[in-house]
Amino acid sequence: MTILVFDSGIGGLTVLREARVVMPFHRFVYVADDAGFPYGDWAEEALRTRIISLFDGLLQTWQPDVVIIACNTASTIAIAALRAAYPGQTFVGTVPAIKPAAERTRSGLISVLATPGTVRRDYTQDLIRSYGGGCAVKLVGSANLAALAETYMRGGMVDEATVAAEIAPCFIARDSARTDIVVMACTHFPFLVNRMRKLAPWPVDWIDPAEAIARRAAGLAHEQTATDAAHHAVFISGPPDALTKRLLTGFGLTAI
Ligand code: DGL
Predict the structure, then answer these.
(1) Taking the domain 2-94+211-255, which CATH number applies?
(2) Which of 31, 37, 81, 252 pairs as cysteine with 9 (C-beta 3.0–4.6 A)?
(3) Under 8 Å CB-to-CB from 202, ≥6 apart: which residues?
(4) Nearest 5°: CA angle at 131, between 129 and 133?
(5) Which residues are annotated as catalytic?
(6) 2-94+211-255 and 98-208: same fold?
(7) pLDDT tens for each residue of 148-168
(8) pLDDT bracket for residue 186 (50, 70, 90)
(9) 38 alpha carbon to ligand 1 midpoint, in Å?
(10) Ligand 1 centroid – CA 222 distance (Å)
(11) Of the residues 188, 191, 193, 213, which should be mutated to test ligand 1's pocket, given the most ligand atoms within 8 Å of the CB?
(12) Which residues line ligand 1 (CB under 6 A)?
């Protein structure tokens, strides 16, 4: 029973690590469409078409029990189209965690930090309308954080001034209220959360939906009680470099 976890890059590993805990006997295949990274800049129709056609081959090769689209940018554009194109396949999407944020905020000021693509989507606007609960929801599109997370996780330096500038628009003070929740609506961002915490103008709750996504997938996956299968990672542009392979090893994955 294979669980396929998909992202544009290494961000989906933040979901994979939670999924492995709640599904310890399943076999995982991690797929990174690094040839298309970053997804945040793509035009909607072109990205949707690309993802649908990638899954043609992926589903045939891996025949997964469940597919986790561990990418907000891909889910908000393509999850409905994927379900329509492959009706026999179970897909779990990752979409901005606006509902839990609206339930948890005390000030009523929430920010959603995402890629520019996720911020533009009708899907995201619909989530705010349906689940925003009357809160003031500020959408903040970050052009650079996903790439910074890619660099950081491969052992590179992260420019703190850039991180501070990217998160600054999330922080709003209005009358006596201040933003108290920032939703991390890109799966790359939890890798930088300690840096973002350090650079935040005041403390907030940073919501990472990874555990909830993993539990949702576990609820839909077939029961599995033992395994001897190895876990693999596939990069669409070909076998990854040594630093990426090292990172994947840390997540229990062998690149093929
Ligand atoms: N990890 C992706 C997400 O959750 C986006 C990164 C990108 O390709 O720009 O939105």
Answers:
(1) 3.40.50.1860
(2) 37
(3) 171, 178
(4) 90
(5) 71, 186
(6) yes
(7) 999 999 999 999 999 999 999
(8) very high
(9) 7
(10) 28
(11) 188
(12) 7-9, 11, 37-40, 71-73, 115, 118, 146, 186-188
pLDDT tens string 101-117: 999 999 999 999 999 99
Specify the length of the chain in residues: 256
Structure tokens at 157: 């330096």
Distance 41 CA to ligand 1 centre (A): 10
The minimum-distance atom of ligand 1 relative to the CA of 146 is: 6
Domain range 98-208, its CATH number among 3.40.630.190, 1.10.443.10, 3.40.50.1860, 3.40.190.10: 3.40.50.1860
Supply the DSSP symbol for 36.
G
Distances (CA, A) of 142 to 26, 94, 100, 119, 213: 34, 18, 22, 9, 22
Q: State the Cα–Cα distance between residues 140 and 119, nearest whole angstrom.
A: 7
